[in-house]
Amino acid sequence: MCLGVPGEVSSIDGVEATVDFGGAKKEVRIDIVGSDVDVGDYVLTHAGFAIRKIPEAQVERTIELYESAIKGGEGPDAAAGGLGGVGRPATAEGGGESRGGDERGGERP
């Protein structure tokens, strides 16, 4: 499982931006998300790349979920083991973490 980290864009220089992750500022590539990213926007970042601009209406909830996951599921999704049940064993109802299969249930090469 990979975890995207939400952060606020504090400056932009071409295809790179300085993103503030709760006080820790890092340089991040923004060319994947395109030119609609502005200073003050929030992006979801993974491995040094902004992979998604977070819509303004979803910023607060995204940060809450991220913080809950970091704290080990103490927040609103605690009953699901944090991260909305990702990493839990699959049940008859579905859910759980995929290990080697794809969305259709087949094996990955």
Distance between the termini: 18 Å
Number of domains: 2
The oligomerization state is: single chain
Number of helices: 1
Q: Can you give the mean pLDDT?
A: 75
CATH topology of the largest domain: SH3 type barrels
Give the amount of beta strand, in percent: 25-35%
Can you tell me the CATH class of the largest domain?
Answer: Mainly Beta
Radius of gyration over all CA atoms, rounded: 16 Å
The strands making up the biggest β-sheet line up spatially as 3-2-1-4-5
Low-confidence stretches: 75-109
- The number of strands is 5
Largest sheet: 5 strands, antiparallel
Q: Can you name the CATH architecture of the largest domain?
A: Roll
Q: Could you say which structural class the secondary elements and strand pairing correspond to?
A: mainly beta
Helix content: 10-25%
Helices, strands, pairings?
Blueprint: E1 5-13, E2 16-21, E3 24-29, E4 42-46, E5 49-54, H1 59-70
Antiparallel strand pairs: 1-2, 1-4, 2-3, 4-5
